[in-house]
Amino acid sequence: MYPPELVAPMKEDLTSVGFEQLTAASDVDAVLNSNEGTVLVVVNSVCGCAAANARPAAKMAIQNDKKPGKLTTVFAGVDADATNQARKYMLPYPASSPSMALFKDGKLVHFIERHHIEGRPAEMIAENLTAAFNEYC
């Protein structure tokens, strides 16, 4: 568990552009059980690839004309219950931080694992996300 003051700016990096921070398992269930529309879930983390690649890519991708109806985030290592619950919806993919999951009508339709984020430029990850947005949103 990381101190709240350490992760606050990392959370704000996404919440300041419209992502809703999910902090409890019930929050995750409420969003992902809706079965209507599209939802992006970004599993945020303190690692360098979240700061350099994942968060910037997510912010770039939501500038696309087509984007999910709901933007959400959970923080691995901080909001454990919410993160663990979100990961249940992301199965069969293994737990991965950071990662990004796009849901449509309650079903996982696109997933970006850490190994697709680490070492790749944010622009490339954003292109991957926007292609998924164009297809599913």
Task: Please tell me about this protein's structure.
This protein is α/β, with parallel strands linked by helices. It has one domain (4-136): Glutaredoxin, CATH 3.40.30. 46% of the residues lie in helices and 20% in strands. The protein has helices at 4-15, 25-32, 48-61, 80-89, 114-117, 122-136; strands at residues 20-21, 38-44, 70-75, 99-104, 107-112. The protein has a five-stranded mixed β-sheet with strand order 1-3-2-4-5, sandwiched between helices. Helix 2 (25-32) runs parallel beside helix 4 (80-89) and helix 3 (48-61) crosses helix 6.
Question: What is the fourth-level CATH superfamily?
Answer: Glutaredoxin
Determine the structural class based on helices, strands and strand pairing.
Answer: alpha/beta
Q: Indicate the mean pLDDT.
A: 94
Number of strands: 5
